[in-house]
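#lab-general

N.A. 3:47 PM
ok so I finally got the sequence cleaned up, no stray characters, all 343 residues accounted for. can someone with queue access submit it? mine expired

B.Y. 3:52 PM
send it over

N.A. 3:53 PM
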Amino acid sequence: MVDTMALLPPFIRASRMRTTAPHPVAEPPADDEVLLDAPDEDLGPALVAAARGEHGPAAELLAATREHAEWEDRDRYVVRLASFARSRGEWLENWRATAPHDPDVLLVGAQLAVDRAWESPARAELLRTVSPSITAAARSDDRDPVPWRVALDHARGARAGHRYFEELWEAAVRRAPHHYGCHVAALKYLAGAWHGSHRECFDFAEPAAQDAPPGSLVQALPLRAAFAYLTDGCGPEVPRERLDAAADRAIALSARYPASAPWPAEIRNLATYVLVRLERWSDAREQLRLTGPYATSFPWDRVSDDPLGRFLEVRDDVRTALAGEPPWHPRSGHGDRAHSLGH
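B.Y. 4:20 PM
back already:
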Protein backbone atom coordinates (compact mmCIF):
# COMPACT_ATOMS: atom_id res chain seq x y z
CA MET A 1 0.00 0.00 0.00
CA VAL A 2 1.40 3.36 -1.00
CA ASP A 3 1.84 6.03 1.64
CA THR A 4 -0.49 8.96 0.95
CA MET A 5 2.19 11.35 2.13
CA ALA A 6 4.38 10.15 -0.72
CA LEU A 7 1.79 11.58 -3.10
CA LEU A 8 1.89 15.02 -1.55
CA PRO A 9 3.60 17.45 -3.90
CA PRO A 10 6.97 19.06 -3.36
CA PHE A 11 5.60 22.59 -3.42
CA ILE A 12 8.39 24.28 -5.30
CA ARG A 13 6.67 27.46 -6.42
CA ALA A 14 3.28 29.10 -6.24
CA SER A 15 1.09 29.20 -9.30
CA ARG A 16 -0.75 32.37 -10.18
CA MET A 17 -4.52 32.23 -10.53
CA ARG A 18 -6.72 35.06 -11.67
CA THR A 19 -8.82 36.28 -8.79
CA THR A 20 -11.50 38.92 -8.59
CA ALA A 21 -13.45 40.47 -5.75
CA PRO A 22 -17.03 39.16 -5.63
CA HIS A 23 -19.49 41.01 -7.84
CA PRO A 24 -23.07 41.62 -6.82
CA VAL A 25 -25.49 39.64 -8.96
CA ALA A 26 -29.25 39.28 -9.07
CA GLU A 27 -31.25 36.35 -7.76
CA PRO A 28 -30.85 33.06 -9.69
CA PRO A 29 -32.30 33.24 -13.22
CA ALA A 30 -35.43 31.50 -14.40
CA ASP A 31 -35.20 27.79 -15.23
CA ASP A 32 -35.37 28.39 -18.99
CA GLU A 33 -32.40 30.76 -18.77
CA VAL A 34 -30.05 28.22 -17.20
CA LEU A 35 -27.31 26.86 -19.46
CA LEU A 36 -25.55 23.51 -19.10
CA ASP A 37 -21.77 23.47 -19.58
CA ALA A 38 -21.69 26.86 -21.26
CA PRO A 39 -18.24 27.70 -22.66
CA ASP A 40 -16.50 30.89 -21.62
CA GLU A 41 -15.95 33.78 -24.01
CA ASP A 42 -12.63 32.33 -25.22
CA LEU A 43 -13.68 28.73 -25.75
CA GLY A 44 -17.05 29.53 -27.34
CA PRO A 45 -15.69 30.87 -30.66
CA ALA A 46 -13.29 27.91 -30.92
CA LEU A 47 -16.18 25.46 -30.59
CA VAL A 48 -18.28 27.36 -33.11
CA ALA A 49 -15.41 27.26 -35.59
CA ALA A 50 -14.81 23.57 -34.92
CA ALA A 51 -18.46 22.89 -35.74
CA ARG A 52 -17.66 24.34 -39.18
CA GLY A 53 -14.63 22.08 -39.50
CA GLU A 54 -12.15 24.88 -38.78
CA HIS A 55 -9.33 24.29 -36.33
CA GLY A 56 -7.67 27.72 -36.41
CA PRO A 57 -9.40 29.30 -33.40
CA ALA A 58 -8.83 26.21 -31.26
CA ALA A 59 -5.17 26.17 -32.24
CA GLU A 60 -4.80 29.86 -31.39
CA LEU A 61 -6.58 29.44 -28.06
CA LEU A 62 -4.42 26.55 -26.89
CA ALA A 63 -1.23 28.16 -28.18
CA ALA A 64 -2.02 31.23 -26.07
CA THR A 65 -2.54 29.15 -22.93
CA ARG A 66 0.80 27.46 -23.51
CA GLU A 67 2.60 30.71 -24.23
CA HIS A 68 1.29 32.33 -21.05
CA ALA A 69 1.47 29.17 -18.90
CA GLU A 70 -2.26 29.33 -18.19
CA TRP A 71 -2.38 25.67 -17.27
CA GLU A 72 -5.78 25.56 -15.58
CA ASP A 73 -7.46 27.17 -18.58
CA ARG A 74 -5.49 24.92 -20.90
CA ASP A 75 -6.63 21.82 -19.09
CA ARG A 76 -10.29 22.84 -19.20
CA TYR A 77 -10.11 23.73 -22.86
CA VAL A 78 -8.38 20.49 -23.83
CA VAL A 79 -11.06 18.44 -22.08
CA ARG A 80 -13.88 20.34 -23.77
CA LEU A 81 -12.28 20.28 -27.21
CA ALA A 82 -11.57 16.56 -27.00
CA SER A 83 -15.16 15.95 -25.90
CA PHE A 84 -16.41 17.92 -28.90
CA ALA A 85 -14.12 15.95 -31.22
CA ARG A 86 -15.68 12.66 -30.11
CA SER A 87 -18.82 13.48 -32.08
CA ARG A 88 -17.48 16.02 -34.58
CA GLY A 89 -13.83 15.37 -35.33
CA GLU A 90 -13.27 16.74 -38.82
CA TRP A 91 -11.65 19.90 -37.50
CA LEU A 92 -9.19 17.87 -35.44
CA GLU A 93 -8.25 15.67 -38.37
CA ASN A 94 -7.69 18.79 -40.48
CA TRP A 95 -5.47 20.19 -37.74
CA ARG A 96 -3.45 16.97 -37.52
CA ALA A 97 -2.96 16.95 -41.27
CA THR A 98 -1.82 20.58 -41.25
CA ALA A 99 0.46 20.47 -38.19
CA PRO A 100 1.03 16.89 -37.02
CA HIS A 101 3.73 17.88 -34.52
CA ASP A 102 1.93 20.84 -32.97
CA PRO A 103 2.04 20.36 -29.16
CA ASP A 104 -1.56 21.48 -28.90
CA VAL A 105 -3.01 19.06 -31.44
CA LEU A 106 -0.94 16.28 -29.89
CA LEU A 107 -2.45 17.08 -26.49
CA VAL A 108 -6.04 17.18 -27.71
CA GLY A 109 -5.41 13.93 -29.59
CA ALA A 110 -4.04 12.26 -26.46
CA GLN A 111 -7.03 13.38 -24.40
CA LEU A 112 -9.39 12.13 -27.09
CA ALA A 113 -7.66 8.74 -27.25
CA VAL A 114 -7.99 8.30 -23.48
CA ASP A 115 -11.63 9.38 -23.54
CA ARG A 116 -12.51 6.92 -26.28
CA ALA A 117 -10.84 4.02 -24.49
CA TRP A 118 -12.21 4.86 -21.07
CA GLU A 119 -15.80 3.71 -21.55
CA SER A 120 -14.92 0.38 -23.15
CA PRO A 121 -15.26 -2.88 -21.16
CA ALA A 122 -11.70 -3.52 -22.32
CA ARG A 123 -10.56 -0.17 -20.88
CA ALA A 124 -7.25 -1.29 -19.38
CA GLU A 125 -6.13 -3.04 -22.57
CA LEU A 126 -7.20 -0.21 -24.87
CA LEU A 127 -5.58 2.43 -22.71
CA ARG A 128 -2.23 0.68 -22.97
CA THR A 129 -2.35 1.12 -26.74
CA VAL A 130 -2.65 4.92 -26.48
CA SER A 131 0.46 5.44 -24.36
CA PRO A 132 2.54 6.64 -27.35
CA SER A 133 0.15 9.53 -27.99
CA ILE A 134 0.48 10.73 -24.40
CA THR A 135 4.26 10.40 -24.53
CA ALA A 136 4.36 12.46 -27.73
CA ALA A 137 2.25 15.20 -26.14
CA ALA A 138 4.42 15.31 -23.02
CA ARG A 139 7.65 15.51 -25.04
CA SER A 140 6.34 18.26 -27.31
CA ASP A 141 6.52 20.91 -24.53
CA ASP A 142 8.41 20.00 -21.39
CA ARG A 143 6.86 22.83 -19.35
CA ASP A 144 3.27 21.70 -19.80
CA PRO A 145 1.69 19.78 -16.88
CA VAL A 146 -1.50 18.92 -18.76
CA PRO A 147 -0.09 15.89 -20.65
CA TRP A 148 0.96 14.59 -17.25
CA ARG A 149 -2.59 14.97 -15.96
CA VAL A 150 -3.70 12.92 -18.98
CA ALA A 151 -0.97 10.40 -18.12
CA LEU A 152 -2.21 10.18 -14.52
CA ASP A 153 -5.77 9.50 -15.68
CA HIS A 154 -4.42 6.97 -18.15
CA ALA A 155 -2.40 5.20 -15.46
CA ARG A 156 -5.41 4.92 -13.18
CA GLY A 157 -7.55 3.44 -15.95
CA ALA A 158 -4.79 1.07 -17.01
CA ARG A 159 -4.44 -0.13 -13.38
CA ALA A 160 -0.87 0.99 -13.10
CA GLY A 161 1.01 0.21 -9.92
CA HIS A 162 1.67 2.70 -7.16
CA ARG A 163 5.34 3.20 -7.97
CA TYR A 164 4.68 4.08 -11.61
CA PHE A 165 1.85 6.43 -10.62
CA GLU A 166 4.12 8.19 -8.13
CA GLU A 167 6.75 8.71 -10.83
CA LEU A 168 4.14 10.36 -13.04
CA TRP A 169 2.92 12.45 -10.12
CA GLU A 170 6.40 13.70 -9.31
CA ALA A 171 6.92 14.68 -12.95
CA ALA A 172 3.60 16.51 -13.00
CA VAL A 173 4.13 18.59 -9.86
CA ARG A 174 7.67 19.51 -10.91
CA ARG A 175 6.01 21.39 -13.75
CA ALA A 176 3.12 22.91 -11.80
CA PRO A 177 3.02 22.22 -8.06
CA HIS A 178 -0.55 23.47 -7.67
CA HIS A 179 -2.16 22.23 -10.85
CA TYR A 180 -5.73 21.31 -9.98
CA GLY A 181 -6.23 18.70 -12.69
CA CYS A 182 -3.21 16.71 -11.57
CA HIS A 183 -4.37 16.86 -7.96
CA VAL A 184 -7.84 15.63 -8.91
CA ALA A 185 -6.25 12.79 -10.87
CA ALA A 186 -4.22 11.81 -7.81
CA LEU A 187 -7.30 12.00 -5.58
CA LYS A 188 -9.18 9.70 -7.96
CA TYR A 189 -6.29 7.25 -7.87
CA LEU A 190 -6.30 7.28 -4.08
CA ALA A 191 -10.04 6.67 -4.02
CA GLY A 192 -9.57 3.65 -6.26
CA ALA A 193 -6.54 2.34 -4.38
CA TRP A 194 -8.38 2.48 -1.04
CA HIS A 195 -12.00 2.08 -1.99
CA GLY A 196 -14.04 3.05 1.04
CA SER A 197 -11.12 4.64 2.90
CA HIS A 198 -12.13 8.23 2.33
CA ARG A 199 -10.02 9.43 5.21
CA GLU A 200 -6.97 8.67 3.07
CA CYS A 201 -8.37 11.02 0.43
CA PHE A 202 -8.91 13.77 2.99
CA ASP A 203 -5.40 13.19 4.31
CA PHE A 204 -4.13 13.97 0.81
CA ALA A 205 -6.54 16.79 -0.06
CA GLU A 206 -6.33 18.88 3.08
CA PRO A 207 -2.53 19.43 3.20
CA ALA A 208 -2.50 20.08 -0.55
CA ALA A 209 -5.13 22.78 -0.13
CA GLN A 210 -3.38 24.20 2.92
CA ASP A 211 -0.13 24.64 0.98
CA ALA A 212 -1.74 26.06 -2.18
CA PRO A 213 -2.19 29.80 -2.81
CA PRO A 214 -5.54 31.22 -1.64
CA GLY A 215 -6.91 31.55 -5.18
CA SER A 216 -5.74 28.17 -6.45
CA LEU A 217 -8.34 25.66 -7.53
CA VAL A 218 -6.51 23.16 -5.32
CA GLN A 219 -8.40 24.87 -2.48
CA ALA A 220 -11.41 22.88 -3.76
CA LEU A 221 -9.66 19.52 -3.45
CA PRO A 222 -11.13 18.71 -0.01
CA LEU A 223 -14.54 19.48 -1.49
CA ARG A 224 -13.90 16.78 -4.09
CA ALA A 225 -13.02 14.40 -1.29
CA ALA A 226 -16.23 15.34 0.54
CA PHE A 227 -18.30 14.74 -2.58
CA ALA A 228 -16.74 11.32 -3.08
CA TYR A 229 -17.52 10.38 0.50
CA LEU A 230 -21.09 11.66 0.38
CA THR A 231 -21.91 9.77 -2.82
CA ASP A 232 -19.98 6.56 -2.21
CA GLY A 233 -21.92 5.08 0.66
CA CYS A 234 -19.11 2.89 1.96
CA GLY A 235 -16.15 3.00 4.30
CA PRO A 236 -15.72 4.46 7.79
CA GLU A 237 -17.54 7.64 8.67
CA VAL A 238 -15.73 10.92 8.03
CA PRO A 239 -16.26 13.41 10.89
CA ARG A 240 -18.74 16.17 10.12
CA GLU A 241 -16.14 18.83 10.94
CA ARG A 242 -13.95 17.67 8.05
CA LEU A 243 -16.88 17.94 5.66
CA ASP A 244 -17.77 21.40 6.94
CA ALA A 245 -14.14 22.53 6.70
CA ALA A 246 -14.00 21.37 3.07
CA ALA A 247 -17.18 23.31 2.32
CA ASP A 248 -15.92 26.41 4.11
CA ARG A 249 -12.70 26.37 2.11
CA ALA A 250 -14.66 26.09 -1.12
CA ILE A 251 -16.92 28.97 -0.12
CA ALA A 252 -13.88 31.16 0.48
CA LEU A 253 -12.46 30.14 -2.90
CA SER A 254 -15.74 30.87 -4.69
CA ALA A 255 -15.84 34.36 -3.17
CA ARG A 256 -12.53 35.19 -4.88
CA TYR A 257 -13.91 34.48 -8.36
CA PRO A 258 -16.20 36.62 -10.52
CA ALA A 259 -19.89 36.14 -9.88
CA SER A 260 -22.10 34.69 -12.61
CA ALA A 261 -19.17 33.58 -14.79
CA PRO A 262 -18.91 30.23 -16.60
CA TRP A 263 -15.36 29.17 -15.73
CA PRO A 264 -15.79 28.92 -11.90
CA ALA A 265 -19.24 27.36 -12.29
CA GLU A 266 -18.14 23.76 -11.72
CA ILE A 267 -16.66 24.56 -8.32
CA ARG A 268 -19.86 26.36 -7.34
CA ASN A 269 -22.09 23.55 -8.60
CA LEU A 270 -20.01 21.08 -6.59
CA ALA A 271 -20.12 23.30 -3.51
CA THR A 272 -23.89 23.55 -3.86
CA TYR A 273 -24.25 19.78 -3.91
CA VAL A 274 -22.11 19.30 -0.81
CA LEU A 275 -23.75 22.16 1.08
CA VAL A 276 -27.21 20.75 0.36
CA ARG A 277 -26.12 17.33 1.59
CA LEU A 278 -24.88 19.04 4.75
CA GLU A 279 -28.19 20.93 4.99
CA ARG A 280 -26.41 24.27 4.94
CA TRP A 281 -29.21 25.88 3.02
CA SER A 282 -28.21 29.55 3.29
CA ASP A 283 -24.69 28.80 2.09
CA ALA A 284 -26.10 26.74 -0.77
CA ARG A 285 -28.36 29.61 -1.78
CA GLU A 286 -25.37 31.96 -1.90
CA GLN A 287 -23.46 29.57 -4.17
CA LEU A 288 -26.48 29.35 -6.45
CA ARG A 289 -26.65 33.13 -6.53
CA LEU A 290 -22.98 33.35 -7.50
CA THR A 291 -23.40 30.58 -10.07
CA GLY A 292 -26.05 32.52 -11.97
CA PRO A 293 -27.21 30.74 -15.16
CA TYR A 294 -24.31 28.28 -15.36
CA ALA A 295 -25.10 24.68 -14.51
CA THR A 296 -22.38 22.07 -15.07
CA SER A 297 -22.71 18.37 -15.78
CA PHE A 298 -20.40 17.53 -12.88
CA PRO A 299 -21.43 16.81 -10.16
CA TRP A 300 -25.05 16.26 -11.14
CA ASP A 301 -24.30 13.61 -13.78
CA ARG A 302 -22.82 11.44 -11.02
CA VAL A 303 -26.21 11.21 -9.31
CA SER A 304 -28.67 11.64 -12.19
CA ASP A 305 -29.11 10.91 -15.87
CA ASP A 306 -30.47 14.45 -16.24
CA PRO A 307 -27.84 16.80 -14.79
CA LEU A 308 -29.62 20.00 -15.80
CA GLY A 309 -32.89 18.75 -14.37
CA ARG A 310 -31.19 17.76 -11.14
CA PHE A 311 -29.55 21.18 -10.84
CA LEU A 312 -32.92 22.87 -11.25
CA GLU A 313 -34.50 20.52 -8.68
CA VAL A 314 -31.80 21.40 -6.18
CA ARG A 315 -32.42 25.12 -6.71
CA ASP A 316 -36.10 24.55 -5.95
CA ASP A 317 -35.30 22.48 -2.88
CA VAL A 318 -32.99 25.13 -1.47
CA ARG A 319 -35.79 27.67 -1.80
CA THR A 320 -38.19 25.22 -0.18
CA ALA A 321 -35.87 24.51 2.73
CA LEU A 322 -35.29 28.19 3.40
CA ALA A 323 -39.05 28.70 3.39
CA GLY A 324 -39.29 26.20 6.23
CA GLU A 325 -40.70 23.26 4.27
CA PRO A 326 -39.16 19.74 4.15
CA PRO A 327 -36.60 19.73 1.31
CA TRP A 328 -35.91 17.05 -1.27
CA HIS A 329 -32.69 15.22 -0.44
CA PRO A 330 -30.25 14.86 -3.37
CA ARG A 331 -29.44 11.31 -2.38
CA SER A 332 -32.86 9.92 -1.58
CA GLY A 333 -35.00 8.05 -4.04
CA HIS A 334 -32.50 8.00 -6.87
CA GLY A 335 -29.59 5.84 -5.76
CA ASP A 336 -25.95 6.83 -5.88
CA ARG A 337 -23.73 5.64 -8.66
CA ALA A 338 -20.61 3.70 -8.00
CA HIS A 339 -17.23 5.24 -8.82
CA SER A 340 -18.42 8.63 -7.72
CA LEU A 341 -15.17 10.35 -8.64
CA GLY A 342 -15.67 9.11 -12.16
CA HIS A 343 -13.46 9.70 -15.19
